[in-house]
Specification:
The complex is a heterotrimer of chains A (116), B (153) and C (246). Chain A is an all-alpha fold. Helices cover 83% and strands 0% of the residues of chain A. In chain B, a hairpin with a 2-residue loop joins strand 1 (119-120) and strand 2. Classes of the chains: A mainly alpha (116), B mainly alpha (153), C alpha+beta (246). The complex binds iron/sulfur cluster and FE2/S2 (inorganic) cluster. Chain C: Its cofactor is [3Fe-4S] cluster; [4Fe-4S] cluster; [2Fe-2S] cluster.
């Protein structure tokens, strides 16, 4: 039997945190910007308004946290899906590398967009 | 067709020759797990769909960052983004993503009380109540976000 | 209601068969007959070579678990009338090696079970032989649900993670570990953590939740695992804190 795994524990905690914030915030944002505004059901917000909102430091930090945790949530779930669903056990290392590499890349992009 | 009959053609080849001399009881039959095990039951399929919702959560991050970037760039890029978001394939993709994200949110809040055991005044808070509190928080959070986006702030 | 029903029973004779085959038997359909009664009818009246396990006929011994029409079930508690007009498929428990007909090998489970020390672990041993450990009803409540497990292994048969990852400790073993972890008289939680908080322990679980649906005793192993994940994760976080604050 293997040892206690603290990396799994940390991975799971971040996955859970990401699952929580994305469940709370993603549906409404996606509904508005992905469906309601493009369909013209509501008029999209003015550029001046959105731009003011997005310059608020609190909003920037909140969005960055949302992006990073959501990606961590994705990485954890997706690697397990590949591992169990497709039984790609042999490729475990590669899968982990790709998933968490994606998190690093995505989070850096988010930092660049939000704070750059 | 029976599961077992279907598996019968998939005997593990390496087990046959060496085990011939071994007494019968120690040569058990081990069915293989199909790569498509998750199609076998509705609940398994639902589970896999729930797990795949994470892909759409990741897509949302990409979409959000494209939007934020466009807004920072100025009114024109923002208008171009809005046009792009109205293209049929983007719209369809986002509708599918929305369905998956909703699946994620609903299953997530339903499962939350499983891990959390809350106590109030020495008594365990019923799981239903914990789940209901999560759904309420979801409603409030969505309301606040919509209010900010639609011009409240 | 028709007065007979067809049972399609999986047969596997290790000395002659390369793989299981299905055999049909027609048995009387009675209102009060469970699938196990049908199997016993076959054994007594039609075909004495059919092998299967059973003992108590009342959902207590946990030995009669099989796959009935694709679902893991205790055959003594699953009624033929619910499947009328049939036919009913009866196969051995999934995810276990088939020894003969409907009998599966349980060695793997038997090896895993003692790893979680499913007994009261006391640090003050020896010297507790004639001490009584008192427990209040709320303390009993903490773990009682988990103590209902009858080791029938239906949860293992329902679990796709166990199917794919045979090293996975599995639902019942983890639920039983929690049964003792949450017992006010027990002091072995940190010993069990070495087995539970591992990649083959709770972290292998992806919460499919089927173990809980399959359990005939309302144990909710999926919930037990989920709860333990939070325990183990909090424990890990705390272990990063400086000594004094743990
Ligand atoms: S947890 Fe339930 S299904 Fe699993 S072995 Fe125990 S009684 Fe059977
Ligand atoms: S025969 Fe004992 S549980 Fe079914």
């Amino acid at each position: 039997m293997a040892r206690r795994s603290s990396s799994e524990a940390i991975g799971w905690l971040l996955f859970s945190a990401g699952g929580m914030v994305s469940a709370l915030l993603v549906p409404v944002l996606l509904l508005l910007f992905g469906v309601v505004f493009p369909l013209g059901l509501l008029a999209p917000p003015e550029h001046a308004h959105l731009s003011a909102v997005l310059r608020h430091p609190f909003i920037r930090i909140a969005l960055f946290v949302l992006c990073m945790l959501s990606l961590l949530h994705w990485a954890h779930r997706f690697r397990y899906t590949l591992h169990d669903g497709l039984q790609l056990k042999q490729l475990n290392k590669l899968i982990n590398l790709l998933c968490y590499g994606g998190v690093v890349a995505g989070s850096s992009w988010a930092a660049f967009v939000l704070f750059g | 067709m029976s599961e077992l009959a279907r598996e019968s053609s998939m005997q593990r080849p390496h087990e046959a020759p060496t085990q011939r001399a071994v007494p019968a009881q120690v040569r058990p039959y081990r069915p293989r797990v199909s790569r498509f095990w998750w199609l076998r039951r509705r609940s398994y399929l639902l589970f896999v769909l729930r797990e795949l919702s994470s892909v759409f959560v990741a897509w949302f991050v990409v979409y959000l960052l494209l939007l934020v970037d466009a807004v920072y760039q100025g009114p024109d890029p923002y208008r171009r983004f809005l046009e792009w978001s109205g293209r049929p394939w983007v719209l369809v993709l986002n509708m599918v993503a929305l369905a998956f994200v909703l699946l994620h949110a609903i299953t997530w809040f339903n499962l939350a009380p499983k891990a959390m055991v809350l106590r109030m005044q020495g008594r365990r808070v019923p799981a239903r109540l914990v789940a209901a509190a999560h759904f309420a928080a979801w409603g409030v959070a969505s309301g606040v976000v919509a209010w900010i986006v639609l011009g409240g702030l | 209601m028709p007065d007979t029903i067809t049972l399609q029973v999986a047969r596997y004779r290790p000395d002659t068969d390369a793989a299981p085959t299905m055999q049909e038997y027609v048995v009387p359909l009675r209102q009060e007959w469970a699938v196990l009664d049908g199997l016993n009818y076959i054994k007594d009246q039609l075909d004495g070579t059919l092998s299967f396990r059973w003992s108590c006929r009342m959902g207590i011994c946990g030995s009669c678990g099989m796959t009935v029409d694709g679902d893991p079930a205790l055959t003594c508690g699953t009624f033929l009338a619910d499947y009328a007009p049939g036919p009913v498929r009866v196969e051995p428990l999934a995810n276990f090696p088939v020894i003969r007909d409907l009998v599966v090998g349980i060695d793997d489970f038997m090896r895993k079970l003692p790893k979680v020390k499913p007994w009261l672990v006391r640090e003050d041993e020896p010297g507790v032989a004639d001490v009584e450990f008192l427990q209040t009803p709320p303390q009993l409540d903490e773990y009682q649900q988990y103590s209902m497990c009858i080791n029938c292994m239906l949860c293992y048969a329902a679990c796709p993670v166990y199917a794919i990852e045979p090293d996975f400790l599995g639902p019942a073993a983890i639920a039983l570990a929690q049964r003792y972890n949450l017992d006010s008289r027990d002091q072995g939680a940190h010993q069990r953590m070495d087995v539970l908080a591992t990649a083959e322990g709770v972290w292998a679980c992806t919460y499919v939740g089927e173990c809980t649906s399959a359990c005939p005793k309302g144990v909710d192993p999926a919930g037990a695992i989920q709860r333990y994940k939070l325990t183990a994760a909090t424990r890990t976080l705390r272990s990063f804190l400086p000594r004094g604050e743990r």
